Amino acid sequence: MNSFITILLLIVPMIILLLTITKRRRSSSKRLPLPPGSLGLPIIGQSLSFFRAMKSNTAEKWLDQRTQKYGPISKLTLFGNPTVFISGLAANKFIFTSNSSGITSNQQSKSTRAILGDRNMLELVDHDHKRVRDALMLFLKPESLKDYVGKMDGGVREHLDMYWEGKQQVKVLPLMRRLTFDIICSLFCGFERGPKRDEFVDLFPKMVDGVWSVPINLPFTSYNRSLRATARMRKIVRNLIHEKRVQLENGASPHQDLITCLLSIRNDDNEELITEEEILQNVIFVMGAGYDTTSTLITFLVRLFANDPVVHASVLQEQEEIAKNNPSGESLTWEDLAKMKYTWRVAMETLRLFPPVFGGNRRALKDIEYDGHIIPKGWQIFWVAYKTHVDDRIFPEPTKFIPSRFENQASIPPYSFIPFGGGPRICPGMEYARIETLVAVHYLITRFSWKLCGDDSFSRTPLPVPSKGLPVQITSRKVW
Fold first, then answer.
1. Distances (CA, A) of 166 to 153, 169, 179, 448, 476
2. Residue 123 above 80 pLDDT?
3. Which residue has the higher pLDDT, 147 or 215?
4. Which of 30, 39, 162, 286 is the most buried (most CB within 10 A)?
5. How far is Cα of residue 25 from the mean position of the Cα atoms in its chain?
6. Kind of pairing, strands 458-460 and 464-466?
7. Is 453 annotated in some ligand binding site?
C-alpha cells in the first residue's frame, strides 16, 4: 500500500507537469506574431519619408518596396500612431466589411481626427454611422439630386463665363477647386457669392493641408495652421446652422440645401435626429471631400484630353451630340446625363489610374488576427487604393488607358476598384461627384479647346496635384 502511494505521488505530479507543458504549448501555438517591419522613432516613425515619397509622386514605389521586403502586411509608425499597412484584394474586403471585423469603420489618424472631429461619418460606427449616413443620403441620393442638376448647370456656366471666357491661359486645378467649391457652397450651405464664401475659399486649403500632417502643434507647422483654419470654419458653419434653423421654423423649404435638410429630419419624438455638432462636422467633412476629390478628377480629365487626342475626340463627339439636341441652350437634364456613358467610363478609368484618395486609416477595436499576424488593439490600419487598381490579374495591361474596362462593371471583382470605397462604406457623395463631373466636362469640352503649357507632372499632398496647377492655353469653341 505504501509503495502504491509512493508511486502515485510520483506519477501525479508528472501528469500535472505534462498537462501544464502541453497547455502552454497549445497556448503558445495560438499566439501569433506582430507583422514584420520596424516602428521607427516614436511619433515620427516613417511619416517623414512617406510624406517625401507622396510629394515626389513615388509613394507607390515606397509602399511597393515595403511589400517586397515584408509582404502584404507590415508594421510602421504613421501620423503619430503605431500602424499596420495591408494591401491587396483581401485587404480591401477586410477594410470595407469592417463592421464585423473588430475595427472601426473608418478611424482617422490623430491629425485628421483633431481637424474633422469625432462625430463625422469617418469616425461613427454601427447605429450612429447608419443614422448619419441615412440622413445625408436623403439629400445625396439620385432621386433628390435630379432636382439640383439645373443648379449645377447654372453654376458651371457662370464659372466658365467669369474665369475662362476671353482668357488665353488659365491654371486648371485652382479654377476647378473654385468651381466645385462654389457649387458646394450653394447646394450644401445655401450661400451664394460674397465675403462668406471668399473666406471659405481661403480657409479650406489650410484645413486640408493638415489632414495628413504629423500632429505637432507648433506655430510653423501645417497642423497648427489647419487647426486655426478649422476653428474659424466651425464658427462660420455653426452660425449658419442657427440661421437655417430659424428659417426652417419660419417655413423655409427643407430641400433648399443640405444643412436645412439635416435640420428638418426628426425622430419619433419630433426631436432633431442629427445633433448640431454632427451637422457641423459632417457638413465640413462632405464639403472638404467634394471640394478636393471632384476638382482633382476634372483636372486630370482636362490633362487627359490634352494628351490623348483619340479619347478627347470620342468624348467631344458624345457631348456635341447632346449639345446639338439642345439648340435653345437650356440646362442639361437627368436624361442628358444618362447619355454620357463613354464620358463616365473615361472618368472611371482616370480614377483607376489616379485615385484622388490615395488611402485611409482604420483602428483596431481589439486584437485582430489577420494573415497570420496579430494587429494589436488600438493600432492604426493603413490601406491604399492603387494596389488592386494596377493588379494585372484584375485589370489586364494596367498601365494602359482603356475605358472599355468599365463597359461591364459586373465583371470587375468586388472591392478591387475602390475610388469611392466599397460595401456599406461606399462614399455617399458618389452620385453627386458623377453629376458634377459630367456637367463640368460637357461645358468645358464643347466651349473650349486647350493645350498644355509645359510640364504636366504631379505630386501628392496627399491628393494628386499637377505641377503649377496645370496651366493650359485655351481657345473658345462654337457654343451650340
1. 20, 9, 17, 11, 8
2. no
3. 147
4. 286
5. 45
6. antiparallel
7. no
